[in-house]
Amino acid sequence: MTSAKQSPTPHPSRTVPIPDTLESIKGYPDKLKIYLMAASSFWQVRFFDGKSTIKRSTGQTDKREAIKSAISFYEKLLINKHNGVAIVKNTRFDACASSFMQAQAARVMRKEMSAECHRNDQYFLDGKVLPDFRELNIAEINYEHLQKFVDKIGVDLSGSSIQRYLGLIRKIFDHAQNRDLLKSIPKFPKIPKHDEPRGWFNFKEYDKLLARANELIGHEDVIRAAPKAGQEQGSVVRSIKFTAELPRMIEFIANSFIRPTDIKNMQHKHVEVIRDDNIYLRLSLPESKKHSDPVVTMERAVNVYEELTADRASARQARPDDYVFMPEHQNRDTALRRLQQQFNYLLDDLGFKAGSRGEIYSLRHTCIMHRLLEGDKIDVLTLARNARTSVEMIERFYASKLNGEMNIEAIQSKREKSKGLKIGNSSKANVQLQVHGNSLVMNLPVAKNAPLNLG
Fold first, then answer.
1. Whole-model pTM?
2. Which of 74, 196, 237, 246 is the most buried (most CB within 10 A)?
């Protein structure tokens, strides 16, 4: 046998042995074989023990080293069999991914993570990750595989989206390594971060948004298909009926810092009206983005909430377990979708849908931006915690949109200086008279025997 590296020849299946590379190892059972496949640059080893075929990557591109690895693999199988140790571990990527998702589902049950986050991971896994990695042994996946995956999905996705996919793959690798299915995790491609500042509405746009939302209440927009032959008009594809909840939703989010998912999940039992030195709502909402602290609102949110409650009380839909917005929809995804449809129409109607403002999330961003612009000596840490985010996120995605002209009053402001009577001829003396209660205090840091000039 030679030690020359052999290159795979084309083959219709990426994980089936390339016929002209498949061979047994001299001096060992014929059922122990090494081979190459198109899906990997490493030599593979397989052994049929009479019941099942056990496959592994040798991790070697040199044939001579691959043979040594195959022999070591075979001897380990014999030792494990003699000791009664299970010799089969499924290290295909899809098996590792399935095991990871099962472990993550258990975390959801323990309330260590949200069900929505788990569903998103499953969506990413099924949509783009498994089609590329499903049949590969997880130990075979290297930097080259990951870079090709990035190049493929990067055609349609932003840098932040690519990072989410790579983050999921890394979590699967960590899971496999913790279970001794993987010795080391390969290096991952670096994806540059390009922050996209959040869309928001300035004060004039917000006023127009709210005014038009109120005008649309009771209006119904009907979308029809193209009419067939002999028909005057086509069948109804979709209709959007505008409700009083649209302007109230706009005002509520723009005065409460909350996310759209909070609107979807918020029940009356989560809301407490506080009337003290300040008037506000205390929102003890379900955990979101690993934040569970209560959120306090602007005063206007109290009025909106009380209007909503009064409207629903007559229909007995304002009980503690009833939802605040669209309680008639038990399917909360449907409830949020109904509001989003109305909001999208409103944005199109006003020509406001440019950039990243075409979703309800932009109302939360508007709330944060208005506080940054209008708040008197606003504490960014307090603002971030109340909005259930971080100071870093505020600086990267919100404050990054601020400029000097937006806050010209602060730029041109002057600090008030205390007024005092200067004593002495020296400009360095800086001696002042100050009034403290009924006493006059004079500070005299002047040289000894220096003359006093009170003129």
1. 0.56
2. 246
